[in-house]
Amino acid sequence: MTDTPLLQVDEVTVTRENGKKLLDQVNLRVEHGEITGVLGRNGAGKTTLAYTVMGLPSYRPNSGRIFFEGKDITDFSITERSRLGITLAWQYPARYEGITVAEYLRLSRKDATRRELEEALDFIQMEPFYLDRFVDKALSGGERKRLELASIYLMRPKLAILDEPDSGVDLLALGDVIKLFKKLIDFGSSVLVITHRDDIASACDRAYLLCNGKVMLEGQPIAVKQYLMSLCSPCSDPLLVRGVISNESQ
Ligand SMILES: Nc1ncnc2c1ncn2[C@@H]1O[C@H](COP(=O)(O)OP(=O)(O)OP(=O)(O)O)[C@@H](O)[C@H]1O
């Protein structure tokens, strides 16, 4: 275990052409072997944060730096970040016309045996026959979401960024999402998860609350969640919020 965080987002601001700040001097870190949650209301900037960490070209920081294992990756492309072991599971999983589920899963681990692919499917409770189906519109959104979880299971990235991994999956599958977190941690991965769900937030080691592109609170997931539910509307003065935080965390 090292003192250097796996991921460190340092004073990152992302601004649109019209001057709107999508992220405003955001500080966040993900420690090795931890599940870090990002909570916040709709439009708070959570997906923007995920895209910025993944390196999507239109979400490059205007100021601030991003470090991965201590290395400054602010100017790295998505491909370079992927090679370092960062992966993003999109909020709305894509369709890949003409690609079978087996081929899709082998994008995550090209030498995976059929048995390993079946094991990954089994992990997210899908039957082996899905391997020969196509990842097209004939698969439901929830099925594609589950496949995305299976692909992360196979990939075992250093950092898995999961943008609302539960969206579109039924309540029973929520348990599978949390099971995946634990499995990834067993594999040596770390997780940055964006979520609206209590049960997923509760599985985190630490959480951040984003509001209008700013980090309003960092701490124990339960405290952050309670703050979000009880005090977060309307947006309070950040200084006042910090006062609330320090009172709560004592
Ligand atoms: N490319 C863009 N151009 C202009 N505005 C954008 C762009 N991307 C995001 N935004 C705006 O930035 C804000 C944050 O969006 P973001 O998708 O990050 O929120 P979120 O917290 O993920 O919301 P949700 O919970 O609804 O998914 C929103 O007001 C959104 O409209």
Structure description:
The chain has 250 residues and is of the alpha/beta class. The protein has helices spanning 46-54, 78-84, 101-106, 114-123, 141-155, 171-187, 198-202, 221-230, 238-249, and strands at residues 7-15, 21-30, 35-39, 63-68, 71-72, 86-89, 96-100, 134-135, 159-163, 190-194, 206-211, 214-219. Strands 6-9-10-3-11-12 form a six-stranded mixed sheet, with helices on both faces. It has a four-stranded antiparallel sheet with strand order 2-1-4-5, with helices on one face. The protein has a two-stranded antiparallel ribbon with strand order 7-8. The radius of gyration is 18 Å and the shape is globular. The chain starts with 6 loop residues before the first strand and ends with a helix. Mean pLDDT is 86; it is low at 237-250. Bound molecules: adenosine-5'-triphosphate. Adenosine-5'-triphosphate is lined by residues 16, 22, 40, 42-48, 58. Adenosine-5'-triphosphate binds next to helix 1.
Q: Brief overview, please?
A:
36% of the residues lie in helices and 26% in strands. With 250 residues, it is an alpha/beta fold.
Please tell me how large the radius of gyration is: 18 Å
Helix/strand order, N-terminal first = EEEHEEHEEHHEHEHEHEEHH
CATH superfamily descriptor: P-loop containing nucleotide triphosphate hydrolases
Overall tally of structural domains = 1
What ligand molecules are bound, each kind once? adenosine-5'-triphosphate
Q: Strand order within the widest sheet?
A: 6-9-10-3-11-12
Termini gap: 27 Å
Poorly predicted segments: 237-250
Overall pLDDT confidence? 86
The CATH top-level class label: Alpha Beta
CATH architectural group: 3-Layer(aba) Sandwich
Structural class per helix/strand content? alpha/beta
Instruction: Please indicate the percent range of residues in DSSP E strands (runs of 2 or more).
Output: 25-35%
CATH topology: Rossmann fold
Shape: globular
**Helix residue percentage:** 25-40%
Q: Total helix count? A: 9
Largest sheet: 6 strands, mixed
Count of DSSP strands: 12
